[in-house]
Amino acid sequence: MTRAGAYLALLLAQAVCALLFASDILLSVVGIYPVPLAWSTREMMEVGALIGLLLGLVFGAMLVWRAFGDLRRAEARLERASSAFIDLLNARFEEWGLTAAERDVALFAIKGLTVQDIARLRQTSEGTVKAQTAAIYRKADVSGRPQLLSLFIEDLMGAERGAQLGQPEKVA
Questions:
Q1: Cα 138 to Cα 132: distance, rounded to the nearest angstrom
Q2: For the chain, which domains are there?
């Protein structure tokens, strides 16, 4: 039986257990008293329901524990990717000889901010930002923001493919 099948069987057993307890309470509240079961049969049903609920608790805890582990691993991968992206940005900015102001504008542009937003954040005129973006595009040898962004995406994809194949990362 697969893991998914085992979880599905456990879920079904828990549903039956919950239905047993819920119907017993509901029938008592409404005042309907079904034909009594033999005490040993009723005890076995309750013990079985208890076991099913306890197994559900254990497996639920295991799934939560696994989910937290997956989350920690995903966060670690994201941190490594963020660090690699920052390193890539800095290497490219250095290669292109960008000034500190151009680096800021390039970073904002890569993040998707508009010229107006960049000007407001940097407290400069839109004309200054346009001139700086033109200088960035010229130094990077691209025609605009989409091409600038695609350079970094290609670099990251190339580094990721290289890492998957056991090759060293290239930042050219």
A1: 10
A2: 1-75 (no CATH), 97-172 (1.10.10.10)
